[in-house]
Amino acid sequence: MPKVLVSDKLSETAVQIFRDNGIEVDFEPNLGKDKDALLARIGEYDGLAIRSATKATEKILEAATNLKVIGRAGIGVDNVDLKAASRKGVIVMNTPFGNSITTAEHAIAMMFAVARQIPEANASTHAGKWEKSRFMGVELTYKTLGLIGSGNIGSIVAKRALGLEMKVVAYDPFLSEERAAELGVTKVELDELVAQADFITLHVPKTDKTAGMISAEIIAKMKDGVRIINCARGGLVDEEALAAALKSGKVAGAAFDVFAVEPATDSPLFNLPNVVVTPHLGAATTEAQENVAIQVAEQISDFLLNGAVTNAINMPSITAEEAPILGPFVKLASHLGAFVGQLTEEAIQSISITYDGKVSEMNTKAIGSAAIAGVLQAQNPEVNMVSAPVLAEERGIKVSSTTQGKTGVFDSYIKLTVKTDKMERSVAGTVFSDGKPRFIQIKGINIDAEVGRHMLYTTNRDMPGIIGKLGEVMANNGMNIANFTLGRSEVGANAIALLYLDEQISDAAVADLKATELFDQIRPLEFDVN
Asked: pTM surpassing 0.85?
């Protein structure tokens, strides 16, 4: 039975989801704040469900010997060391949709607040003042909203803004013209957006490309009197530059829910006129907190019980519906990688994968991760689908893939090619109707080989007597052959043999084969067929 630790405050409904799914769960909502206690106990668990209080550091992950998945009830995963998790092979999931409406509504609320100076007017009135002339606001109707980021939250903001009869222009490199038309927004470049917008709202993640994207240079290009709203991530806006623009009057107001450093006890934006600030409340509604808690419990359960990967940050997602169909091809890719990896002793320069036929329409990212893992596991058995792409990148291995329609007799096949500075080696395989992976080509030679746990691969010049000699040596050493496959490029040229054995071939049998001097290569191979 899988075991999950809930180390932050999640709803009882979410905890009950684990129990209803037959998963053992320890609900310790304050454990995440005690680093030493968490470090001592994390090794017991297959899954970890958190909010923001728990810090899944490299040290914690190193101690998490059984951990397979971390689920963050919320969008941001700043409290998880993603690189360390990926190297460890731990899937990190978030819940990007559970608080989308709440966060979008907060952005709209902040826009109203800064347009009408509501917080300052509220404070003034509570103080017994009656300063009607001081708090002259602006309408939102017919104003232009500049939307930076048109993903899930951004698109909800756009719909709400259009309902307020605002004109919406959007900057998002991934926004297609078709999607823009569907949303009712105009797609523009960033310079165009800042030149047109009366209000600007940000809805992008913080990455190397987006960090500091609203700089002093960009602010200088904005329309005078613009108002800026950030309910996305801290650090997207240069706070010092914005504070200077607010003081000069270039920017008429700002509303921020997120800051470069959080908790934010100090900021250049604090105590400036017409700056509305809130303590990262974007997802802080009862509905959103319940939604993300339930969603993370369902995602972790689905992964631990069914292998479904949903909203993963560091691995391609695999739906519960996909898993049974994808599974045999993931296993095939792993076998292809393992075959090449066990034969390759030099440093690998590149891995290329070709998906032919129906498999090209499947989730090739997940399949590719399995292939890379298979290659690297020959040197490091702890590598898995999560850690493999990271390790390949760290080693400078170039990974590429190609998809194509059906070109041969098989409805689907996968071909894996590995290059080193000394050689290029390729192997191809398919999945038969019984769901079992098969090798169909090695070094360009067509074969039909079942994959077994213990196998022997040999190469030689095509000549009489090879079959007999292989059989004789196996028999003399008490090795039973379950399956025997041969192939050759042409008469008298390169030939290969794959033997599926009932047990791992002995050193004595390998030595006897070498003594014949008939074989160019003799390589025992092992495959995980479970």
From this structure: no
